[in-house]
């Protein structure tokens, strides 16, 4: 398999490790009997961190790999590609 890395990967890993730490904290909160509201708030933060890491990965992939595959297109043919990349922000 070919190694596949982008500049954003170290930042994504850092985000995911932070989310991993938060998730471990949530498990400890459950084990210690913390209130459900506190736990839900922390779980929400974990979900947001993971979703942001996923979004960054997908957008970075589109910005680099898709561009590399399709190559340079004239301005009048770029609209669909640009719209596709923009819509991924709503994933």
Write a compact overview of the structure shown.
With 91 residues, this protein is mainly alpha-helical. It is 78% helix and 0% strand.
What does the model show?
By secondary structure, this protein is mainly alpha-helical. The protein has three helices and no strands. It is elongated, with a radius of gyration of 18 Å. The two termini are 28 Å apart. The mean pLDDT is 87.
Major sheet summary line: none
Q: Distance N terminus to C terminus?
A: 28 Å
How would you classify the helix and strand content by structural class? mainly alpha
Helix count equals 3
Q: Which descriptor suits the 3D outline?
A: elongated
> Into which percent range does the helicity of residues fall?
over 70%
Q: H/E element string? A: HHH
Give the uncertain stretches in residue-range form.
none
- Report strand %: under 5%
E-strand count = 0
Mean pLDDT over the residues: 87
Q: Which value, in Å, is the CA radius of gyration?
A: 18 Å
Overview features:
91 residues; mainly alpha; 78% helix; 0% strand; elongated
Write the layout of secondary structure elements.
Layout: H1 9-31, H2 36-70, H3 75-87
Helix pairs in contact: 1-2
């Amino acid at each position: 398999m070919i190694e596949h890395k982008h500049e954003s990967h170290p930042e994504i890993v850092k985000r995911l490790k932070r989310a991993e730490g938060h998730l471990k904290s949530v498990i400890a909160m459950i084990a210690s009997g913390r209130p459900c509201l506190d736990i839900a708030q922390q779980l929400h933060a974990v979900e947001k961190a993971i979703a942001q890491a996923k979004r960054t990965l997908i957008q970075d992939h589109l910005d680099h790999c898709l561009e590399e595959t399709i190559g340079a297109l004239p301005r009048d043919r770029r609209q669909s590609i640009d719209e596709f990349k923009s819509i991924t922000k709503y994933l």
